[in-house]
Design a protein that fits this description.
heterotrimer, A mainly alpha (270), B mainly alpha (295), C alpha/beta (234), A: 270 residues, two-stranded antiparallel ribbon, 10 helices, 4 strands, C: 234 residues, alpha/beta, Rossmann fold, 4-stranded antiparallel beta sheet, 10 strands
């Protein structure tokens, strides 16, 4: 899901949003604050996370991406990491502890299926991912808006000439990506049962690595990349421990970028 | 001068090195999120040289710079043909790999009865060359700024020379540079290695100033900050990154009022500034204008 | 219908349009000629809103459109068939047409049928990806897409570029038909030979300015122009 959101922005706006994770973290922190001060059910917390992430995303879009629409991609990316710095500090100022508890997605025990033990919250996350994918597919291939988005992905100039308001499409896609990211953030916080200031950078990195694993800019690739990354991390973490696991993932990213196998060159969203 | 001001001045000097190293890559046309790794390599190498191998600071600094250049070349070689976002991502990945290596590094020697050396995430304490050699804080500031001045002088000479023009040409249009006969790959590698050496220089000095370093010192935020310093200060002159560092550490850090909101203010400043001045405050146009005015 | 006055468009410091003035009469086919680099595409792009002019005005039905975004221009009834048949290669032919109708709120099935009747190859390939079409089919698709917005003024930038002569004739037959059906057409053509057959009025652009304005008769009479732009295929 993180990869989906990141890829949407990368594929449509052709820019990397380094404030993506931090905006999600803002959402998660907003939900944490809500749960600390109010009696809020999981649904409310999910809505708060998504809404706050979309709000934060709008701030990023207006300040970093809208002004640099016609300029070099680097300017937007650089501006986005400046906002990343802002979100990090804001998070530590608002909730200064290194760690905060977050309500669990599911309180009960795991499901026993023969030899396998399956965590319910993991199932919930998978389910949510399937729903999001389905929703995204429906939006992109069964609505007028989706035609506009795919047109902008193919050729923003031609899209404008066809009467599509490109800036508005950018803004809406950004909001959509932030919403998906927000949902992901809520699910992550709920399954980890905690939030930390590290969530920001972590989310961006995971989204980015998964996108690159799956073939830059391709939405199905993003999902595949996410699944692949999850599998790689789970196994590497089990056998090698957390640090070598992270090292391996970065090495994989580095090698993939350096070698750039042909399936990593997709630009269009298929 | 009071100790606090000395500290600020020293830090401005130290971080200028890593900002300049990001600047060098920027004018060669590449965005690097990884200069903090070479800062770290320099810090560890310099610390090992003095605290564990008993060498003097000048030797340690040279060793650190060599290590930095080597590390940078290691990262740069496989990624030579990458541009833009892809190159930036490899630098990020590489820098995190270095940071993890710092966290996994355990090597301690018995020096005069105690264990000295990098101890993973516990860090590397006991880099006491400065204290043992009787160098006062004022003396150290002088050393840092003397070296910085030397580096700036080098930049000025290079900027006015053919080398400088070549580097900037590389930054403007690598394809065009290639057609004019510039070996783009070899040049880029040279620039990457030089930037690594520069960051390592700062790192070695940093290690000796703090006497204690840990992997967390060299995380992504440092790289992001270095890049921001160069971009906000301006890409027209080597003074640009210096200006950026001064704005953050000098103005914001020192201001009692803004200190807690430093990153928020600085981040906002960078984003806003980029809208009007995408090449920083002291960008090429301003520098040209200044040069014309004062020559 | 369209009145361009002293239009100046620059790329950085370089002025591609140095003060262009011309008129397109309603219900006409007007053709813009000129050598490469004269600024014809720049003019089209400026009228269509892709480029912002530095100075000057583009008046269309009593409104100055200079500086508006491309989708606002489409909303006001101008559609551009761009040079090089820019399109949406990953989307199907049908989806390309739907994209062209993005601003329309009313049912578009009739328009799609009409375009399919005009360009039968498109109907045959309606589910095919636009990127796999031949040059001629892509040009038909580009024209069809522009027509989906029911423009009052159709701009065409070098519609015959890179196409086989038979296809070129097809395209110009379509241009004549559209004109008969009431669309005003303003087209750019480098090879004036075909344009002579359909256009009622000509402008010649050289180095960012309009250097000639006249009807086919006076155009064909001018020796210099004839040699330079009508070529040897008389």
């Amino acid at each position: 899901m993180l990869a989906l959101g990141f890829t949407l922005i990368f594929g449509v706006l052709r820019r990397a949003n380094l404030a993506y994770g931090p905006a999600i973290m803002f959402g998660a922190y907003a939900a944490t604050w809500t749960s600390m001060n109010f009696q809020a059910g999981l649904l409310i917390l999910a809505v708060v996370t998504i809404a706050a992430a979309v709000l934060a995303g709008a701030y990023v879009e207006r300040l970093c991406f809208a002004p640099h629409r016609k300029g070099p991609a680097a300017a937007a990316m650089v501006a986005s990491f400046a906002l990343w710095m802002q979100f990090e500090e804001l998070a530590t100022l608002a909730l200064p502890n290194h760690l905060y508890a977050f309500p669990a997605l599911y309180e009960g025990g795991p499901l026993e299926l023969g030899r396998f033990t399956v965590r319910i919250d993991a199932l919930l996350i998978l389910l949510a991912t399937v729903v999001v994918c389905g929703l995204l597919w429906w939006i992109l291939y069964r609505t007028r808006f989706g035609v506009a988005v795919r047109a902008v992905i193919d050729d923003p100039k031609a899209a404008g000439l066809a009467g599509i308001g490109v800036p508005r499409v950018f803004m809406l896609v950004f909001a959509l990506a932030s919403a998906i990211g927000g949902l992901a953030g809520f699910l992550i916080a709920g399954s980890q049962e905690q939030v930390t200031p590290m969530l920001g950078m972590w989310s961006t990195l995971k989204g980015m690595v998964a996108m690159m694993l799956g073939g830059l800019g391709s939405l199905p690739g993003a999902v595949a990349g996410g699944l692949a990354l999850g599998l790689i991390e789970a196994h590497a973490g089990w056998f090698l421990g957390p640090q070598l696991r992270d090292f391996l993932v970065y090495l994989l990213l580095f090698v993939l970028l350096a070698l750039r196998p042909p399936w990593m060159n997709t630009r269009s969203v298929s | 001068m009071d100790e606090y001001a000395l500290g600020v001045l020293t830090n401005i000097g130290l971080f200028s090195f890593v900002a300049l190293s990001a600047y060098l890559l920027l004018i060669a046309g590449e965005l690097s999120f990884g200069q903090q790794a070479f800062f770290g390599v320099g810090a560890y190498a310099g610390g090992i040289a003095t605290a564990m191998l008993g060498l003097t600071l000048p030797v340690a600094v040279v060793i650190a710079m060599l290590c930095g250049a080597l590390a940078a070349a290691l990262v740069g070689l496989p990624t030579l043909r990458l541009r833009g976002l892809y190159f930036a991502m490899t630098t990020l990945a590489a820098a995190e790999m270095f940071r993890i290596l710092f966290e996994l590094a355990h090597w301690q020697l018995d020096v005069e009865g105690e264990q000295v050396g990098p101890d993973g995430s516990q860090g590397f304490r006991g880099i006491r060359w400065m204290l043992e050699s009787g160098v006062e804080p004022e003396g150290f500031v002088a050393i840092v700024w003397l070296l910085l001045a030397l580096v700036l002088a080098c930049f000025f000479v290079i900027e006015r020379s053919k080398l400088g023009a070549t580097i900037r040409a590389l930054g403007e249009d690598p394809t065009l540079a290639g057609t004019v006969g510039i070996d783009v790959n070899r040049f880029k590698l040279g620039v990457v290695a030089a930037s690594g050496a520069l960051a390592a220089l700062g790192g070695a000095l940093f290690a000796h100033h703090n006497t204690y370093i840990e992997p967390r010192n060299f995380d992504i935020m440092l790289g992001v900050h270095s890049l921001a310093y160069a971009l906000i200060g301006g890409l027209g002159t080597a003074f640009g990154p210096l200006l950026g560092v001064m704005l953050d550490i000098g103005v914001l850090e020192s201001s009692r009022f803004l200190q807690g909101y430093r990153m928020i203010v600085f981040g906002g400043l960078v984003a806003l500034l980029l809208v009007w001045r995408p090449r920083g405050i002291l960008d090429e146009r301003v520098v040209h204008w200044l040069r014309a005015r004062f020559s | 219908m369209l009145s361009v006055r002293d239009l100046v468009t620059a790329y950085g410091k370089i002025e591609a349009l140095k003060g262009v003035s011309l008129e397109v009469a309603p219900g006409s086919i007007t053709c813009l000629l000129g050598p490469n680099g004269a600024g014809k595409t720049t003019l089209m792009m400026t009228i269509a809103g892709v480029l912002r002019p530095k100075r000057g005005s583009v008046r269309f039905l009593d409104e100055d459109l200079a500086g508006l975004a491309p989708d606002a221009i489409v909303k006001r009834g101008i559609a551009l068939v761009p040079e090089n048949r820019l399109g949406f290669p990953s989307m199907s032919v049908l989806e390309n047409l739907q994209a062209g109708a993005y601003q329309r709120r009313d049912p578009i099935e009739e328009d799609i049928e009409r375009i399919f009747r005009r360009f039968p190859p498109l109907k045959a390939r309606s589910a095919q990806q636009a990127g796999t079409l031949s040059g001629g089919e892509q040009q038909m698709l580009a024209v069809g897409r522009a027509l989906m917005s029911r423009p009052k003024l159709l701009l065409m930038d070098e519609p015959s570029l890179g196409l086989a002569p038979l296809v070129v004739e097809e395209i110009f037959r379509t241009v004549a038909e559209l004109h008969r059906d009431g669309t005003t057409i303003f087209l750019v053509e480098q090879n004036a030979h075909m344009a002579l057959k359909v256009a009622q009025h000509f402008f010649l652009m050289e180095q960012g300015r309009v250097s000639f304005s006249g009807d086919p008769g006076s155009l064909a009479e001018d020796e210099v122009i004839r040699r330079a732009y009508l070529g040897s295929s008389r």
